[in-house]
């Protein structure tokens, strides 16, 4: 989550199409390298930080030297720092919370757990909910944990669940900073949210019940006789509150400008993470198998992603108006498609800007001279058609972030934690081919057609 971003690239900056190649190449490497022979795979696992950083630096140098767009690089770096401070601090604090579970591995109780996670995601964000709940989720299903358990957790808790509030997912927070009222989205998407979450949860329940029925009865009895519920590391709840509260420092009168200028929000988050790590008993970290491996992997890969995606987002900003996108369903699928392979926060910002541009082109009389960013967004929200564009962009960015591991920050982190716990998670391509395309995509398209086609 970051402060209000300016347009990602000024219209005067000419971004050639070929400059998108490093971004596509990095995505290809992330997807393909885990599938290569052991020697090549080992090379990637050892050198991927240098590869990701090197590609990002090359693009950044081109922007500074070739395009004279140093401010774009500076802004992107600040976005990255905000992003990694948020998910890193939540990762550390959540790693100090240990929830012991009892008899929660039956299909029905699994569904209840996922639905609770979907609600919690709107209170502490998809990153916070994912980091707090993924380890209990793995433990409560440890006897029969499978790849689909991790995938559906990502679908519901790490993405689709957080579509109701600005805290829920970074794209919605950008909308909040630009003028979308805190509870506006709840009133406009609650029915679609319930239907989408319900459909994904139903598919999971049917799948989980099928595989649970194949578990020997003696094992089922063991599942139902696990230890009692226990919650350790309660002090970290306070640090979670501090991190969530820090998100709103930029909104505090007199403090906001200083927070943005000196990155006070990020410093508060880092302070909470350091205090959490110091004050959490070592035994809690041991029970969680806590280490910094997952966040290091995310940090290295996403610095490359943030830097190399600058040309892609800039090209969209330049040529998006030529696409003839006017219908809510088009905004939903277009923003969703890009959110699946780009970070969904800047994708949301780009399409929100596109909606404003389209509205100003179609109805210039609605936008008096001197109207600021918040005023422009208010015009969109007050118009029956353009408000649907905002809804479409919001849901497209949040829902479709679940289509790949890199669509949303928590996705890759959940995979890394599951891998560290010995779970056989799908590869980048396996995730898409086995689950996203055949299971999630039809649900999301049906949801969009039902609620956004009018």
Shape: globular
Q: What is the end-to-end distance? A: 32 Å
SSE order:
HHHEHHHHHEHHHHHHHHHHHH
Percent range for helical residues?
A: over 70%
Strand arrangement across the biggest beta sheet: 1-2
How much of the residues is beta strand, in percent? under 5%
Low-confidence stretches: 1-12
Structure annotation, total helices: 20
Please state the average pLDDT score.
84
Biggest beta-sheet profile: 2 strands, antiparallel
Helix/strand/pairing category? mainly alpha
Radius of gyration: 22 Å
Instruction: Count all strands and give the number.
Output: 2
- Count of the domains: 1
Characterization of the model:
This protein has 20 helices and 2 strands. Residues 1-12 have low confidence and may be disordered. Helix content is 70%, strand content 1%. By secondary structure, the chain is mainly alpha-helical. Helix 2 (38-66) packs across helix 3 and helix 4 (107-140) crosses helix 19. The chain has one domain. It has helices at residues 21-32, 38-66, 70-94, 107-140, 147-156, 170-177, 184-213, 217-223, 235-246, 256-262, 264-279, 282-288, 293-308, 310-319, 328-341, 344-362, 373-382, 384-399, 409-420, 428-452; strands at 98-100, 230-232. It has a two-stranded antiparallel sheet with strand order 1-2. The radius of gyration is 22 Å and the shape is globular.
Concise overview:
This protein is mainly α. The protein contains 20 helices and two strands.
